[in-house]
Amino acid sequence: MKRRTFIKASVAAGVGAAVPDLLSALAARAAPSGVSSRANAAKSQPLPWQREVPLREAAQSVVLERTLSPTNPLPDSGGFGVGAAMTVNSLKMRTTIWGPPQRITISLNKNNVWDRRLNTRSLQAPTLQEIIDGAFSPANKGFEGRATDSQRPRGYGYLLKEGGFYDGYRQPFEYPMPCMKPVGQIILGIDPLAGAEAPKLTQSCANGVVKLQASRDNVKVSVDYVLGMTSNIYAIRGRLAGIHTPAWLRLYRHRDTAHMRYMNADGTAYTRPGTEADKAFNSPMEPPTSGKDGRFFWIRQKMPAEKTFPLGFEYVLMGLVTTPGTVNLDTVEGKTNLGTPPPDRDIAAAPGAAATATFTPEAEQNLEALITIVTTMDGPDVLALAKQRLTEAEAASFEGVVKENADWWNRFYDRRENGRVFHGLSGAQCSDDIRALYRSYTDSHGGGTKTDMRDYECSASYGLPERDVQPWTSAPCYNEIFTTPRFVRNWADSEDMWKQLVWHWMAAAKDNARDMFGMPGMFITHGYLPPVKPDKYVHTTITLELCLETMAQLIKPAWDEWDYGGDVKYLRKECYPLMREMALFYAAYARKGDDGYYHIIPSMEPERWGFYYQFARNKDVISSLCMFRWGLNRAAEAAEVLGVDADLRQQWRQIAAQIVPYATWDTANGPEYCAIRGVEPKHLPGDHFGEAAMYPAILADEINLDSPQAQKDMMVRTVHALQSSGTSGSTLLLLGQTAVGRRRPGDDSEALLNSRSGRIHLFPVVPQADEVAFRNFQARGGFLVCACKKADGAYYVEIQARRDNRCQLMNPWSGQPVEIHDVGQRQPVPFQLDTRSGECLIFAMTAGQKVVVERR
Hints:
Elements: E1 3-5, H1 20-29, H2 37-44, H3 48-51, H4 55-58, E2 63-67, E3 86-89, E4 93-98, E5 103-110, E6 114-115, H5 128-135, E7 158-159, E8 165-166, E9 179-180, E10 184-189, E11 200-204, E12 210-216, E13 219-227, E14 233-241, E15 247-254, E16 289-293, E17 296-302, E18 314-321, E19 328-335, H6 345-349, E20 352-359, E21 365-375, H7 382-416, E22 420-423, H8 434-438, H9 484-488, H10 496-517, H11 542-545, H12 550-565, H13 568-589, E23 591-592, E24 598-599, H14 622-642, H15 646-657, E25 663-665, E26 672-673, H16 695-698, H17 709-721, H18 728-734, H19 749-752, E27 753-754, E28 761-762, E29 772-779, E30 783-790, E31 793-801, E32 805-810, E33 818-822, E34 832-833, E35 840-845, E36 850-855
Antiparallel strand pairs: 1-25, 2-11, 3-4, 4-5, 5-10, 6-9, 7-8, 10-15, 11-12, 12-13, 13-14, 14-21, 15-20, 16-17, 17-18, 18-21, 19-20, 22-29, 23-24, 25-26, 27-28, 29-30, 30-31, 31-36, 32-35, 33-36, 34-35
Helix pairs in contact: 10-12, 10-13, 12-13, 12-14, 13-14, 14-15
């Protein structure tokens, strides 16, 4: 097929002066002063948020349901893959409930419980010049970096000048650390329930309380669990009937098995060639211990010493049975068959430590117990702190933890009233998805918890319980951050993990830009940065570090928080410093060629190809091109708002304007965008789900609803060529098309409000017959928008500005006259129509101003 270059047209949404004849027509059709009868009719019916019950009230009757899985401890939500165990999370802990009825088991992870040891080679990296020398060395002539079964890289290192491919992080071996580690198990043992039918579990969306009932013959057990959202206290309350044999509550932790990847089980001999040379940092973890003191019982685990915690990081999982009566405590170490065996055979067979509280119920008896986890991050004396916490929790009892959660969830649901979606035109019941809202406090990348890298916390969807070896070092993947829809939905609070990660690593990333590239700014990109002391940048995948768009993708949530939220103080203090360092690096890295364009060489397509001889497939990758342009332009825009760095913003804009045009691929139906010049766009089953050719739309916001039709058509053809990718449906939606299999409106926030171009489009991808509304969605420029739609169109539109700005709203009633006025006022707000479409209403707003837009 022929290949040609497509010269990108300007995508700026230019706005001209008012069109006199259109304004005259509107004035002629305008009703006399006051509001039209149609508007009055709309006002007469209650708005959805006036008639539907509050979320905190609706949540009282909503539960998550699951049958207790006897063998599968993996979470049923928020995981990489599907598990069968009910997920019970707090802000810092990810736990699951599973096991047979006679051994109901809670498996625990906490997002700061890590083995933080580093492969010493992760602190070393080749310079850019060394990477160039290796790629152009005749010794590597013909080298191709693609895997054999997909378009992914076949390795993650780089080419050596003397010839060959080298990956110091994985040669001789990729060690299973740094890595999140399982905390342990909480097991409720009731032997007479052996053989009972697996009970149903319910989890309240109002307070997180999990309930189950199990029975066999005359034995009946009812157990409630609650995990404190902020206290990380696990409270257990049970009613036991018909039991005449001892029941028990056990805390258990197996001995870590990760070293068995390269050593024998005892940790006395190396079995993997080359690993003995790394014995300074790859020794086995110490075995867990157990203990008891008075009414307290615990297990304890210490991690190996490393630079972040030179004396070693440790935690204690401590329990306290608060039920009156005789409770016997027992501890054991170094024994097998103490815990509930997970599918991992090494863990199931490993010895471990257990602390068990045993009691014999009398007739019908209640059981109440409290368990907490305390780590080195909480203080040096973990045992004393754990005892103190449990003593305080005992005074508040089970109901105290329930109240803690109810208060937290009430505040949370009140916050989620902003961004709420309503379906239908009548009814008082909540029509939004409470179950989805219940999980919305965190990004799924964070493994269901709220992480803060600055507090040495990190987790990911694939950091799972009952695993000593976690894929991708338990850290989130930085090239899968497509979070703008969450900012539209007004869920910015769920995305703060990204800016915290960048702030934690910024100083080291600045050193990295200097040392590896000899450039200003910072270089933070794809890799798996662990929650460690950031005195030295950690390199885990040199190949993917050349996916240069990743830095902008990682910082874009911070930009969206400003762009959609409109807080200038946030822009100055938290966003622009990141944008500036990124732009300094991007401006230095882009090099002007003889053709007058700025090129980005080398650059790597996201999770594709790997290194090629002479960078044959490592030049001007579309994802790098579009995100360099995005980063430079947005940094310049931010600097202009703040009135700083005038010389830099001029330079950034000049470079952005001269970045080389995107490559295309000709087809019988017309040209398509391609990620690399000369490479046909296609998606194979084993490829990464994110397609770089779609990034100008899904990430850079360049190709949008207001782009020239030729650009939109080309992107649509590109999506169809790559339709099996995970980004295809979202990209089509952003261009105003409904993709097959998409969910109902509200699940895709930008089907309801799309402002990627800077213009606010209401209900751009909603079927005409649908009756749907939303409250306080966010639009670019710092606007809050409420809108309601029925079958014949919108019937209520309200916009509030959170900073002084010009609002651009596409007429919700195309071709018909409208009126804009302040809420509660009759005086019209003046507006203009743009010269291009004649449908965009343009009007100035001041911070705090709220207007209603009505059809006359």
